[in-house]
């Protein structure tokens, strides 16, 4: 019995000894870590100035409120006055650094794919879909963009240009002729929507297109709303609209596949983007998955729905406020037609050289987007700790490049609140004008949007004059998600008499 007790005592003593050693080891390691952390913190650069506000939400509510009332420039300026041109805030739980201009924009774009990659808040990514080009990063993004780029290169524009021109002629005949007043934003939707729908789906005006329009507006409204998935909230409506649109696309895909299988596809449908997505394999020789096709059809369609129509409506708004701009545009387009006639060319057949000749008109559109940018910036996520301008930006934080500093900065744009298309006779400094985004995620449909908008303006100024019904309204605009006045650009129109 004594032997057993002594053995037990020895075992307990040994366990106590080992426990003591373990405690001492943990204590020493903790002290070493604490000392190391202390010196790391002493040596680490400070975080960018600013504050994160309330837990999780941070400045989300005031940010979205400023965005929807077109008050982002004022909100950013308030933060700049308080913290300087580089500051931090919190948006839907994410720590964000608002980058300065233009150096911050340059830093983001030039380091994309190395120290940062494309990021979209999860509620926005959900609306776009997991296969959308807009949410891809790295090599996957390069592969998808390379596949889709062939639909928007110069060769593609040459194929599309006269179809867009015919659509413009039909649009003005059907929707402007005989009208005295028009809601510009709504009527221009009837031009941009058939243009992109015809390009992507060979879809003409009619009940199906009207349904697309209705659901697309509901879907687009969810991007800058609080991500609350309860009935009655905008984001919930947007999710429901996405589901309806995907179902419509699925039905169109099934109908198209059936026509292809039965060898009864009309020639007109052979050249649209849907046909290519269904029949042209990827780089590995595989046909594309339906989920990929639907997500990217959705993306391609939205690039031509609200963005181009809002830009054109804003351009009409600015031209109406500056009659001399109308006269200069009209003169430019008359000269283009005169030169075509002198060269013995058909004035109704357009070339990319004609589009390139519309320099002043394009300057008017650029100036419109400088003053009223549709996209004020987007996010990149850091994949490593960064140092920038004496500040430490931790891994996992978001960087927000933006246009609000530079577009209104007199250093880059003299008298920045003045509408002055002549400033576009010279190019602005790099990374100061980013109306179509920047880096590898710049707008993939840029060339198509430019072409279709210039053709619209050509037919407009050749055939109509117009004025604003509410000429003294200067804001604030509403953003849902793009800027517009409450009257949605209500105009009085007058048909020009031919001489």
Describe it for me?
Its cofactor is heme. With 499 residues, this protein is of the alpha+beta class. It has 2 domains: 2-93, no CATH class; 126-495, Cytochrome p450. The protein is built from 18 helices and 12 strands. The chain has helices spanning 2-43, 60-68, 72-83, 103-110, 122-128, 138-149, 154-175, 184-201, 207-220, 234-261, 273-279, 290-304, 306-321, 323-342, 352-356, 359-371, 404-407, 446-463, and strands at residues 87-91, 94-98, 116-119, 181-183, 377-382, 386-388, 391-393, 398-402, 464-468, 478-479, 483-484, 490-495. α8 (184-201) packs antiparallel against α12 and α8 (184-201) runs antiparallel to α13.
**CATH topology heading of the largest domain:** Cytochrome p450
Number of helices: 18
Summed over residues and divided by their number, the pLDDT gives a mean of 88
Question: What number of domains?
Answer: 2
> In the CATH hierarchy, what is the superfamily of the largest domain?
Cytochrome P450
CATH class of the largest domain: Mainly Alpha
In the sheet with the most strands, the strands line up as 1-2-8-5-3
Query: What does the radius of gyration come to?
Result: 28 Å
Distance between the termini: 126 Å
**Percent of residues in β-strands:** 5-15%
Number of strands: 12
User: Could you say which structural class the secondary elements and strand pairing correspond to?
Assistant: alpha+beta
What is the second-level CATH architecture of the largest domain? Orthogonal Bundle
> What share of residues is helical?
40-55%
- Give helix and strand order, one letter per element, not per position: HHHEEHEHHHEHHHHHHHHHEEEEHHEEEE
Unreliable runs: 1-15, 34-42
Q: Describe the biggest sheet?
A: 5 strands, mixed
General form:
globular
GO molecular function: metal ion binding; monooxygenase activity
Protein name: Cytochrome P450
Binding site for heme: 443
Organism: Riccia sorocarpa
